[in-house]
Every structure is written in structure tokens, then in C-alpha cells.
């Protein structure tokens, strides 16, 4: 296909890698943060095996950056998140939650600290640039908030370290999990972090000048060719195996961190009055009314991810919904993330799922079992290796 064959109009932005991704076989796109994101390079199962056995390069420029600078940058960023940032060093990254006044999740981004008063918030799919600028209006803090010319790529998979070594030399192997480094590649300004949305060993390469998008893509693909690098897209199979959230699917602004089991990212004892603190204190005291669980769904393999929320029944009563479901060819099981009532979240319990996947029985439901999540490598040993 040709790049001009894809078109939602000029309101949907193209990344600096758009033409390269089409040239390398992208057959379909979705929209994320008002941008095109490649979602189809052929067989999604093959994309999964490419990721877990070798390496894939993904255009994730849709992970837009909110840049916060100024004398009060650190203080301001702390007002946005429930995670204690007091010991966050320059050069470090942290997974954070951004909540509203009711404790609802607005985004679950990666925070990068480039300098003492220079931060990037690398976004999931919601408009935090507008939120942060709005919060700043009456915050009384000296900060500047904008979106920089920054476009990330993800290089993910067990051979990603070798490819990075070929690109940047041996010193890149010293980069620790959830740390960053500012570098140049053939004169192209980039920032590299040991992060990614795959639960595998991986790196994110943040291009700092969009004019070099095509050159950077081709340079990485050439360096990766001896290691089996393939163009790819973020794998729904691998992210569900790893229990990774997809915003708007597994969480939204009505979902609080305690429902998701993310208590470790809520520090209610810090001095800062971050947005949502009072609500989260109240929710913690009362206990969440819902909980996210894993499900193993019986039946034949699902033919792709769910495109709607599926009701979950217990004794004929709706207790929640399946938010993300997929067939894992590695586990040889249908796996899913689900949000159900807290009292129903008993490991080993059997429930019924109402879906349109073609694997239902005559009653219109299929059996499923509540299990722990993540489904694979729960301690993230692969990503942190």
C-alpha cells in the first residue's frame, strides 16, 4: 500500500516514521493521542514471536511528551501524581499515575527526569498536556508546559541489547532498567531509555528532531538486520500476558489505583497535596468496590482481541466486564484482564463470560476461571535483565 492510501484528514497527525512504516509493510493504523499508530504488519501472532524471540521496531511517536520546565518544575510534577518523587534522580524514569480530584485515573505514563527542573511525561492515550496546562493556571508556580518535538520508537525483544550495542557501542549496555541517557546517533539527537510497553528487554529511542525520522528508522533497521530485527507493532498478546494496562480499555477516569492493584504507586504520607489525595485516602480506608483480575477463558482460541466489553456473570448476576482478551499462542490459552466486584474476586472461582467471539455455548456464555495476573514472567525478570 501507499502512504496516501491511509487518510482520516489532517486532524490526525502522522509521525516522522509514518512513511517508513508503510514502506516496511504497515497495512493498518489505529488512532492514539490524535495520531496514526501502526497496528498491522501482517500476522499478529508472527509479530508476537518476532518480539519474544528476536526484536521488533515499533513507531510509538503517539506517546507524546508533556515537557515541564522552570524553577518549580519538580514541585509541580509532584502535584500531578500520587507517587513519591522525592528521591527521583536526574536521569531516572518512573512509572506514575495521574489522577483527578476523585482519584480516577487520567493517565499512567512514564516520567523522565532530564535535569533538576526538566521533566517529560511520556503519555498513554489521553490529553494530559491540556490537563497540566489547566492545573498550572492557578497553581502559583513558575513552570512552562509544552509539547516538544520528540517522537519515540520502541526497540523491544531479547536481541534489542545487541542491536543497541551495534548502534551506540558497548557503553549502552550499562544503561539500567528505568534510566535514560542523552545521545547522538550519526548526528541525530536522541534520548534513550530502558523502558517499553512489551514486558520484554527493550529500549525507547526518543528522536528530538522530527526531520530525521526516516533516517533514524532506516539506521536502526540496518543495524538490526543481522539480529533478525523486524518492523512491528505493540503486541496485544504480550502486553496482556504481562498484565500491562491499555488506557480507555482497562482503565479510565472512573478507575482508581486500588482497583488495579497499584497501591505501591500511591504514597498518601508524603507532604505534597497531589490532586486526588483526599479521595484516594478515603477509597483506601473504605476499600475498593471493584478489583482487576485475570481470567482464563475456555473454548477455542480467540480470533483476535475483543472489540467490545464482555459482561461477566456469577450465578446469573452481572459482576463486571472483560476489558482486554486475547489468545496467547505461548500459553495456549485465552487470557483476559477483567474488572469485577471486589467480593467476587476470588482466585480459582468460575464465572461465565457473555461474548461474541464464536466460542460461546448454547446458553450464550463461556466458562472462565479467575486467576492471578500477570500471566507470564510476573516479576518482570525479562524486562529488567
Describe this structure as you would to a colleague.
The structure is a single chain. With 385 residues, this protein is of the alpha+beta class. It folds into 3 domains: 3-64 and 149-240, Probable tRNA modification gtpase trme, domain 1 (Gyrase A, domain 2); 65-146, 2-Layer Sandwich (Alpha-Beta Plaits), CATH 3.30.70.1400; 289-372, Aminomethyltransferase beta-barrel domains (Elongation Factor Tu (Ef-tu), domain 3, Beta Barrel), CATH 2.40.30.110. It is 18% helix and 29% strand. It has helices spanning 18-23, 44-53, 73-80, 128-137, 160-168, 213-224, 236-241, 277-286; strands at 28-32, 35-40, 56-59, 65-69, 93-95, 98-99, 105-107, 110-115, 118-122, 144-146, 151-156, 180-185, 188-193, 202-207, 230-232, 290-297, 310-314, 317-328, 333-341, 350-353, 366-371. A hairpin with a 2-residue loop joins strand 8 (110-115) and strand 9. Helix 5 crosses helix 6. The protein is globular, with a radius of gyration of 21 Å. It starts with 17 loop residues before the first helix and ends in a 14-residue tail after the last strand.
